[in-house]
Specification:
The structure is a single chain. With 279 residues, the protein is mainly α. 70% of the residues lie in helices and 1% in strands. The protein starts with a helix and ends with a helix. The model has no long low-confidence stretch (mean pLDDT 95).
Amino acid sequence: MSVLEDFEGFLLANLPKIKSFHPFFNEALAKMLRAGGKHFRAQLLLGVVKLKKPKLTQKAMKAALAVEFIHTYSLIHDDLPAMDNANFRRGEATLHKAYDETTAILVGDALNTEAFLLLSEAEFSDSVRIKLIKTLAFNAGINGMIIGQAIDCFFEGKRLDLSQLKFLHIHKTARLIAASLQMGAEICELTDKEIEKIYEFGLKMGLAFQINDDIKDATASEKELGKPTNKDTHKNSFVNLLGLNEAIKAKENLLKECESLDIDENLASWLKELIKKYI
């Protein structure tokens, strides 16, 4: 069984739920998690563990699920009327459309906080658990995803320069991708130098991932992506700033930079295959 298949089984067996008399909250909690997605970030975390310390792969599932919860919460909130006001995500109605805006906000809040509960319960030493919590909080919080989203929303319709655009997307997208790799490395208790290189790789790969997303938004159909396309014409995207051909070149250059980084050969080979599949 592949890491992805193993994780998907673990996810479905560990969907968040709470005993209460609310008529549909558990259903809403599970809706976007059940809807699929690439589970790219979870694969990154688990892939590092499987390659470096395979005996810890099952114990790492809770950490991978925590990352998936954070990513899914960010999508739910990103789709809200106050932000992107999207109707579809992963081929299904967004939560505020399927239920209501209050439910979508609270489900996002729930997944955010549940992620850290999962990490606190993971079967690792106290020092490793603290590192995992700190890494996820740093990269998903004001030092990462939150400031990226704040800039994205505030500067919508206002043109950023290239350095500002990179700052936006490194924080909004790349940091959580890099954190997923770092958390896998922390579970394996790799050296600080190894972790630093893996995180650097993740930042470059994460930015390439975002550029690729911008390219797909401009070129793919809504049916192919399972969400509205051509929705970023008023946003600060790499395609809007650089044009399609230059955006493609920028992505390719970042992937070349990834290849030049000095990381474990087996890890580099596996990441190259993952990049081919998703980027």
